[in-house]
Amino acid sequence: MNILIEHNPSSIKLAELGVMSWPKWSCQPGKYALVFEERETCYLVKGKVKVYQKGSSTEFVEFGAGDLVIIPKGLSCTWDVSLFIDKHYKFDPPTSL
Prior knowledge:
The protein is built from one helix and seven strands, in the order βαββββββ. It is mainly beta.
C-alpha cells in the first residue's frame, strides 16, 4: 500500500516540518471511503485508524496518535477509525503535466 509511518518523531523534526502550522482535520469513529488526489503528509495528535486499500478486507495498515504518516498520491482506501481522529495535514502541491 506504500503508506510510510514514522512512530513518535522527535519534536525537532516536527518543528522543522512546521507540522503545528498545518491545517487540522478531525473525524468521529466510523468507516470513510477516501481517494488521495495528492500525496498527503499528516501527524496524528489523537486517534487510531486502520487503512484498507480499496478492494481489500484483510490487508491493512494501522497508525495512531504520535505517528507521522505519508499517504501516496492516488491511493483509494477505506479508513476504519476506531478512536476519534485529530490530525495536522498538508498535501504536496499538484504536479503539472
